[in-house]
UniProtKB/TrEMBL annotation:
It catalyses: N-terminal L-prolyl-L-prolyl-L-lysyl-[protein] + 2 S-adenosyl-L-methionine = N-terminal N,N-dimethyl-L-prolyl-L-prolyl-L-lysyl-[protein] + 2 S-adenosyl-L-homocysteine + 2 H(+); N-terminal L-alanyl-L-prolyl-L-lysyl-[protein] + 3 S-adenosyl-L-methionine = N-terminal N,N,N-trimethyl-L-alanyl-L-prolyl-L-lysyl-[protein] + 3 S-adenosyl-L-homocysteine + 3 H(+); N-terminal L-seryl-L-prolyl-L-lysyl-[protein] + 3 S-adenosyl-L-methionine = N-terminal N,N,N-trimethyl-L-seryl-L-prolyl-L-lysyl-[protein] + 3 S-adenosyl-L-homocysteine + 3 H(+). Belongs to the methyltransferase superfamily. NTM1 family. Transmembrane segments: none annotated. Its EC number is 2.1.1.244. One of its GO terms (molecular function) is N-terminal protein N-methyltransferase activity. Keywords: Methyltransferase, S-adenosyl-L-methionine, Transferase. This is Alpha N-terminal protein methyltransferase 1. GO terms for biological process: methylation. It comes from Trichomonas vaginalis (strain ATCC PRA-98 / G3). PANTHER family: AD-003 - RELATED, ALPHA N-TERMINAL PROTEIN METHYLTRANSFERASE 1.
């Protein structure tokens, strides 16, 4: 994997950009639909890396450059399946030859064998907590290959499980 450019999707106030991505990458694009979050992240990061804030939602983002890494943390759980697949297809097409997509999201249940229809919808924040198999189906439909899936360690058992998926 190269170390030139990363995108932080739905990056909020830039915790991942600052604490993870800026340690490795020269350029960071923060894709976030809340303008004040983009601005505060810019103020923190522009002296550390070459920063570009893109004020748009993930479902509408059309990458205009190539990336070594696209990081999507607690982002695609807010996208409907078709929007998610289209988003991931666009991400895949914007990867450099040895680039990766990382998806970190809640999983509906710790079981890897639950079917897609066991996903949970939270009306409060329009969040879809998909099953593990549902995520694999979305990745497959997007033409992505699962390289690794990693369960979150040291996680409160009262909370939904979290997985990090590494894709290419």
């Amino acid at each position: 994997m190269g170390k030139t450019r990363a995108a932080d999707i739905a990056g909020g106030i830039g915790r991942v950009s600052k604490n993870v991505l800026s340690q490795t990458f020269e350029y960071i694009d923060l894709v976030e639909y809340i303008p004040s979050f983009v601005e505060s992240t810019k103020q923190e990061l522009e002296s550390i890396v070459k920063f570009r804030g893109i004020t748009i939602g993930a479902q509408d983002w059309i990458p205009d450059t190539k990336y070594d890494l696209i990081w999507c943390q607690w982002a695609i759980m807010y996208l409907m399946d078709d929007d998610c697949i289209n988003f991931l297809i666009r991400c895949k097409s914007s990867l450099n030859e040895h680039g990766f997509i990382v998806v970190k999201d809640n999983i509906a249940n710790k079981s890897k064998s639950l079917p897609k229809d066991r996903a949970q919808y939270r009306e409060l924040d329009n969040q879809i907590n998909r099953t593990y198999k549902h995520y694999l189906e979305l990745f497959s439909k997007s033409g992505l290959k699962l390289i690794e899936s990693i369960p979150q360690k040291k996680w409160d058992p009262e909370l939904l499980p979290v997985y990090t998926f590494v894709l290419q």
